[in-house]
Amino acid sequence: QVQLVESGGGLVQAGGSLRLSCVTSVNIFSIDTMGWYRQAPGNQRELVATITRTGARTNYADSVKGRFTISKDNAKNTVYLQMNSLKPEDTAVYYCKAVRVGLDYWGQGTQVTVSS
Fold first, then answer.
1. What is d(CA 115, CA 75) in angstroms, rounded to the nearest whole number?
2. Gyration radius of the chain over CA positions
3. Strand-by-strand arrangement of the 18-24 sheet
4. How far apart, in whole angstroms, are the C-alpha atoms of residue 19 and residue 17?
5. pLDDT confidence of residue 50
6. pLDDT at res. 103
7. Tens digit of pLDDT for each residue in 42-88?
8. For residues 8-29, b (16+ Cβ closer than 10 Å) or e, as one string?
9. Which end of the chain has a smaller Cβ tally under 10 Å, C or N?
10. DSSP per-residue string spanning the chain
11. In contact, 106 and 72? CB cutoff 8 Å
């Protein structure tokens, strides 16, 4: 069982920045892949970014490439999402996801609202 706790969401003006954090209840190095997803009202949940166990490979949605950066700190069992140059269309609930031994685990989500 993996528990995930996100934090760092909030209200920001367009062009601003936020950093989301996701702390895991287990050794993060035991998790195969971690990622951030988001869901806006009326939309399906979509992938934002993923990172592999070693951090050697990352993957981003086209809509956030060049603006968002995913990273992890194994010592703190934490994965981050640095979000820069935020746009109103980035407004959504952001979820942390862990994939471990073929099972998916989700956090409770954190709201990000970008005002124009």
1. 35
2. 13
3. 4-7, 18-24, 78-83, 68-73
4. 7
5. 98
6. 96
7. 999 999 999 999 989 999 999 999 999 999 999 999 999 999 999 99
8. bbeebeeeeebebbbbbeeebe
9. N
10. ---EEEE--EEEETT--EEEEEEESS-GGG-SEEEEEEE-TTS--EEEEEEETTS--EEE-TTTTTTEEEEEEGGGTEEEEEE-S--GGG-EEEEEEEEETTEEEE---EEEEEE-
11. no
* Cα–Cα dist 23/80, whole Å: 9
Report the half-sphere exposure of 59 (CA within 13 A, side-chain side). 11
CA torsion sign for 11, 15, 17, 18 is positive
Q: What is the mean pLDDT of the chain?
A: 97
Q: Which of 9, 89, 8 is nearest to 46 (CA)?
A: 89
Express as a percent the part of the chain with pLDDT over 70.
100
For residue 79, the model assigns a pLDDT of 98
In this structure, what token pair is assigned to residue 91? 């407004």
CB-based burial label for 67 (10 Å; 0-12, 13-18, 19+) = middle
